[in-house]
Amino acid sequence: ATPTAVMVGTGVGASQGVLIKGGQALESAHKVDCIVFDKTGTLTVGKPVIVRTELLTKMVLQEFYELVAAAEVNSEHPLAKAVVEYAKRFRDEENPSWPEARDFVSITGHGVKASVHNKEIIVGNKSLFADHNIAIPDDAEYILAEAEKMAQTGIVVSINGKVAGVLAVSDPLKPGAQEVISILKSMKIKSIMVTGDNFGTASSIAREVGIENVIAEAKPDQKAEKVKDLQASGYTVAMVGDGINDSPALVAADVGMAIGAGTDIAIEAADIVLMKSNLEDVITAIDLSRKTFSRIR
Ligand code: ADP
Ligand code: MG
Question: How far is the CA of 93 from the centre of ligand 2 (A)?
Answer without folding.
Answer: 30
